[in-house]
Amino acid sequence: xxxxxxxxxxxxxxxLVAAHHAARDLYxxxxxxxxxxxxxxxxxxxxxxxxxxxxxxxxxxxxxxxxPPGWTTLVNHLTAQGFTPAxxxxxxxxxxxxxxxxxxxxDRIVFPIHNHDGQPxxxxxxxxxxxxxxxxKYINSTDTPIYHKRQMLYGLGEQNAxxxxxxxxxxxxxxTDVLATWLHQPQPGYLALATCGxxxxxxHAITLAALPAARHHGVLTAFDADPAGQHATLHAFRILSxxxxxxxxxxxxxxxxxxxxxxxxxxxxxxxxxxxxxxPLAQAAVDITLDQYLAxxxxxxxxxxxxxxxxxxxxxxxxxxxxxxxxxxxxxxAQRTGSRLDAVADIIVDRMEHDPPTRPPRAAHIPxxxxxxxxxxxxxxxxxxxxxxxxPPMVFPPLHQTSATPAxxxxxxxxxxxxxxx
Length: 422
Known about the structure:
14 strands, 4-stranded antiparallel sheet
């Protein structure tokens, strides 16, 4: 790659990109000779990324590499190529110390981040196997004039091709999940993406909403089946439901697994089956929130007040959803908490009156539980909270109860007891 000439004043973005090209190439060469990092990637099912194409491996478009443990390996290499200390700092590839500039990435497997033009602009760095336990597992490039981590998604620049518009966007936790999905590519086809060392942001949601693949096929989340993954699921749901109109789903992964583990241990068919086992992301968010609430209050569903408090806890998740989805979730919440549907509907509407939705769905009606046979069924209307009604109201099927059925059980049904609901 021909390097632009240095300039005075503000850093030249083209020079910063050129520095990343040189760093990416150096890291790639070091990976090919690094036994430990190559073994780690192989054990994760990513062996092809540790070999060049002439040996049956894969380089482009990912260019996975390894930053060696020396303090100034990259600084010395880039300085010899004519890059200035100011450019190395502006690129986020070096950091100052009292002894001079040192490399940001040392003894780390590095995953280059490419912009929409396929140019390297940053790195994700994972601690190499055998690193000291006190060393952070991941470090990532800081924001620079050519890179903004709250906007960019790992995997998008590498897969930014028109033919990918027919894929389903798959939001995962880390770069190895992105690489595993790309390598195995379970049908019907997924465009796997991950955030770059930060939690999911509104800017990420805007980026996703602009993708033809997301608009046509929605977004499927496949975060790890652990507490951190549950937190990521809830966080992504709150942002995506409030800022987009995309169809949102969540894959139900086996406990303790992630997409990379599934693909490596059990093969493409296992990953395909896990991604096909999905439910609405809103339902996943409701179940995670209820499970967390009930884990702290194990007898909450024994009493009416406890059931009402549990419903209040999840009601705020629903305010930005389309009305027909609120209806379905109201029944799901009623079944999980052992509550009457009309009680759930009243709490949801009360929450929406105090916390109006940021985008109004279509009007709909949630019917109360059936009244006596000779009386009308009362309805709790969502129309007041969703004033842009343009479609005929949807009526939610009543629960199969009669007026003689008790208003609520004294003990939670089995399906409503604490524990992850799948």
